[in-house]
Amino acid sequence: MKKLWIYMAVPMTLLNGCQIRPAQAAPTVNTVAERETGQEQTIPVEQKVPQNQQGMAAETIKEAAFHGSTVMIAKSQKTRAADITEEEIEAMVRMAASDLKTVVKNGQTVVLKPNLVQMIVDSTGELLDQEVNGITVDWRVTKAVLKMVRELNPDGKVYIMEGSATGPTREVMKYFHYTPDYMEGVDGFLCLEEDCGAWQDFDAPEVVKVVLPDGLLHKTYYFSRILYEADVVISIPTLKTSSGVVVTGGIKNVSIGTPPGNLYGVAPDNPSKTAMVSHKITDGELDRWIYDYYMAKPVNYVIVDGLQGFQSGPVPMSHERKETDKMNMGVIMGGTDAVAVDTICSLVTGWDPESIGYLNLLRKNTEAGELESIRVKGAYIDELRKKFTIRKPELGGIQLEAGTGPSLEAEAGRNGEQLEIQYKTGENACKTEIFVDGIFQYSGGTAADGEIQLNIPGLSAGTHEVQIVVYDRFLNKTAKTIEV
Q: CA separation (Å) from 426 to 183, 211, 237, 469?
């Protein structure tokens, strides 16, 4: 059996118990050997990050390394998601997935798994929009990911794989332009109900039985062999909410979308997974299935199509709601840690990640997804957030109320290349970030009354702008800027 593995974030306390760093125990962070030297590509998207101001000392410092999980967000400047062009989408994907090169190497087998759940409105049978519908991944997003993968992996295999809930998957792919005419460089467009053997053939060579001794629901699961043996799996979900599971993100996209329909479907002509696991939600079986299937084969990268976004999914409930539940978000999100990405998706859509069953299981059993170990780049969450509804709120999930960031008082001074910051903040503060002249220098836990000392190589003489940002556990922020 292939060795099982998971991504492990830096161990931290749970979100409801933020790590406290008292003033008398403030660390000195020496970043001499931890500076990042790469420069980001300039692209036509909005970046909400501190910027160097005219009159400040010349930039001589470098961005500090961050040893947790990074979630990158690219935000379009267009008012309407439907107006974002293919070129702009590619630029957004390249920004959001700027660290994809750390995952994809030449000669690998790479599987791209977009969310193509279905192409119709169940209640009316009408077709969904082929682009930016919020329900399925826009083909231009997947094409941009494919281009990046092929640039990094020209000699390996690249597959696009899906098992639609309402099929046949082949027809869904064709309708949404997942074909060689639209996407060059794909070694196979794999439809799970037809490419994994005959109906109920659990011994088919195209599938593999995976033993999961610590499984919470089952101890064995079946996978597409190509998926399970792939070097890299990239989950490409849409940004949407769904009753019970709340967030339909990078993890659910593979845990529900990739079990072979010929093994787990309702019938030979119906690949729906409704009989695969209980969807009652309240019995917890669906969350345990999502957790188990992900643990048996974690993904290596997540790129979220948030161009449109959709509430009360996972599919539209009526002709009217096909349009009114679109959220017009205009974002692409990316990261190597699926738990971190799904956590940020929950906060962007206005839901408490601690109320999401499968995320709680992952935090409890892997220590992944802790807020202190997640850095969000490119945008502030409280400025992006919209309140996505779910159709059946009684099935679980706690929606966030409007909130403001923690209180903050701060002062700063310097001694050569050492920066000293004293601050007081509210008890609800959970995380602190520090920027110098708009350049990231620190991220960590927060005490109500604390002190942080930073050694910053290259901190030149003259005036510098220090920005302290504190967050509560929903990433509502308060910022204070000090000249030193």
A: 51, 47, 36, 13
